[in-house]
């Protein structure tokens, strides 16, 4: 499989390069009969699309999705769904100066050593451009999960560089370029303007949540729901850490605090992040990811070339000074793909299981 496919029952194979003619994916395993048109997918692609604000790459891609197969008369047929997104605004000449050198912190070095060849144009296969097909596939999964179970996904930025972003309301997330849950984002605008002028980049922290998740999704050992979530999130470019629920804060918790007490009316807390023993509790899935600073920056840095000689690297071109700014819809899509996979697994194995007692309410007191 060579690491380009995620999922088994809902298998998504991603293809293409940043500066190739097109990128896309093939979805194998989508149940038949679900209404599906391009506009169902395009909305999420527009949220991830480059060039949407001055704080992200100014590469002007429409990211218009085309459904090539797997849909007939507006409904999925159960056969593979091929989704295509054409590249229209490549500027490959911007990368000519790094064709024989390696950007510090970038995959240039490892790709060269693994394959003996690499596409330097925009990072080729290692480019964050390849997250667009992931978002497209996630939109398909989101629609099926919403129709079958009422599951909804949302994400927001909770930290930009060293600036923590307090949570005010989910209502603010779609009204600013940072996907920030606050009404006033001026300090983050100023921070990014200064960062760009300095020729530098920063990281970010993203919170992603799934609500309405049914009880029982996941497997007991190696395919735990939270393990698969972590695996998927680490597949996103630049992610260096994943937390489920309380995450690393659990280290400082006492058992009397951390265990989420249960009552007939619901859970009192959600430190577990909606997963116990690798299986969903019915509470909200709570995931947080840490994204490193962008490797492609215009500030000169020490490196080596393909001959092993010292060199200085300056990356030209159009780059996100913080790739985390556009990560929210990608994180949603990855979480949706994992939940979709486990929903289909659960339906196949345990679809006729009747719990001895009804599940407690998902919301906590």
Automatic annotation (TrEMBL):
Highest rank taxon of the organism: Bacteria
Pathway in which the depicted protein is active: Metabolic intermediate biosynthesis; chorismate biosynthesis; chorismate from D-erythrose 4-phosphate and phosphoenolpyruvate: step 7/7
Top enzyme class: lyase
Free-text cofactor note: Reduced FMN (FMNH(2)).
The protein's required cofactors: FMNH2
Claim: Secreted is one of the keywords in the record: no
Subunit structure: Homotetramer.
Record's protein name: Chorismate synthase
Protein's organism: Acidovorax benzenivorans
Name of the gene: aroC
